[in-house]
Specification:
The chain has 397 residues and is α+β, with helices and mostly antiparallel strands. Helices cover 31% and strands 17% of the residues. The strands form five sheets. A five-stranded antiparallel beta sheet has the order 8-7-9-13-10. Helix 1 packs across helix 6, helix 1 runs antiparallel to helix 11 and helix 9 packs antiparallel against helix 11. It binds ligand EPS. The site of ligand EPS has 14 residues, from helix 6.
Length: 397
């Protein structure tokens, strides 16, 4: 990622999260309210724990924006952890040495970063690892994603998400963008558009909570309004699907990713998978190259093909469980029960919002790579001029 670059810093119970973003052209409208809209969406969802009642995520823009518009310099964001104001956390997570005795966390949680992290970094306290491996960091990523979303909106690209499954409850959804109940999804506590599935998903989360357990699931992210030709077929790491897959797998607890109905396609012959190209006589007025289906999920040979991008992420159930899993102690190696302080039961609804953010980031990076531009008007002019060239063409001399 070289065109839209970003880094995050911050521990879950430290003072807060920092995000630095570079590559956004000058002149783009950007406000704290715009970013806050996505941060609030990430905090929601049925199945969240008590922590989300403490946090009121809002990012402060500390550089890169003047009088409501970007100025081309790095954009820095600061997001406070309200929980850090608790006296316990101030001591446990103090930057300076403290006089108080601070308990170590040594009961390794299976499925979390605890074992590999403490071994790799040579540490005797799991807290050194869990504070950064916590999904709290995704608040900073969503803030970066909001900035990317603003850039994409300038060239008519929109990104949305929905929950497809929670545990074994699977929702129905429409293949075409306009058939999806996006407004209902935003109102749904589990971010699902299928009213029949919603109560079953809620009941499944309640049952998991009752059983002191956790639940995973599947979310889907879609993007529409894409030009043909983002990404490139010429190197593995320039392929748009590879970049999207890496970004989705980079979300905490995601263990699987799928572009279009990839796993279903794997069981079918090619004649039932590849999306036909319609003749010009059947195109709608405002589009060039129509496809009757979108089984490619909007990407062919590592390039956007102008169809909606459809990507799914599969989340394992959260690995911090009130039903303490059998483990071994980090210091003694003796049998123990895994560490539990407090946790969410299910984060699939939040993961969809995070999925939107990372897809926005990858697409913003690919759009800047294709169109460039140091001012937003230059970026938009370049994009519009390129789109004009798409379509059947005369052979070139
Ligand atoms: C998380 C554990 C919980 C989550 C947290 C991710 O935090 P705590 O240990 O403070 O209860 O709530 O997620 C967030 C704080 C957030 O904003 O999403 C973990 O271990 O990954």
């Amino acid at each position: 990622m070289t065109n839209f670059r970003f880094l995050t810093a911050g521990e879950s119970h430290g003072k807060g999260l920092t995000t630095v973003i570079e590559g956004v052209p000058a002149g783009m409208e950007l406000s704290e309210d715009w970013i806050a809209a996505d941060l609030v969406r990430r905090q929601g969802g049925y199945g969240r724990g008590k922590r989300q009642q403490i946090e009121k995520d809002r990012a402060e823009i500390t550089s890169g924006v003047r009088h409501g518009r970007t100025i081309g310099s790095p954009i820095a964001l600061w997001l406070e952890n309200k929980d850090h104001n608790n006296a316990n956390w101030r001591v446990r997570m103090a930057v300076e040495p403290v006089d108080e005795e601070v308990d170590r966390v040594t009961l390794l949680r299976p499925g979390h970063a605890d074992l590999a992290g403490t071994q790799k970094y040579g540490l005797d306290d799991v807290r050194q690892i869990l504070e950064r491996s916590s999904a709290r960091e995704t608040a900073a990523r969503v803030a970066a994603g909001s900035v990317a979303r603003a850039l994409l909106a300038e060239i008519g690209i929109e990104v949305r998400s929905q929950t497809i499954a929670i545990g074994d409850v699977v929702a129905k959804t429409a293949d075409d963008w306009d058939g999806v109940e996006w407004d209902a999804i935003e109102r749904s506590p589990v971010r699902v558009g299928d009213p029949d599935a919603e109560p079953h998903m809620i009941a499944a989360i309640d049952a998991a909570k009752e059983a002191l357990d956790s639940l995973g699931g599947i979310f889907e992210v879609r993007a529409r309004g894409l030009p043909i030709g983002l990404g490139a077929h010429v190197q593995w790491d320039r392929r748009l699907d590879a970049r999207i897959a890496a970004a989705i797998l980079g979300i905490n607890a995601v263990k699987g990713v799928e572009i279009g109905p990839a796993f279903e396609n794997a069981h079918k012959p090619g004649s039932e998978v590849h999306d036909a190209l319609l003749p010009a006589s059947e195109w709608e007025d405002d589009r060039k190259w129509e496809r009757p289906t979108n089984r490619a999920g909007g990407i062919e040979a590592g390039m956007s093909n102008g169809q909606d991008i459809v990507v799914r992420g599969a989340l394992k159930p959260i690995s911090t469980l009130p039903r303490r899993l059998p483990t071994a102690d980090l210091l003694t190696g003796e049998a123990a029960e895994a560490f539990y302080e407090r946790a969410d039961q299910c984060v699939v609804p939040a993961a969809g919002v995070i999925g939107e953010a990372v897809l926005c980031i990858v697409l913003a990076d690919a759009a800047l790579e294709k169109f460039g531009g140091d001012h937003i008007d230059e970026f938009k002019r370049n994009a519009a001029a390129y789109v004009e060239t798409v379509g059947p063409r005369e052979p070139r001399a």
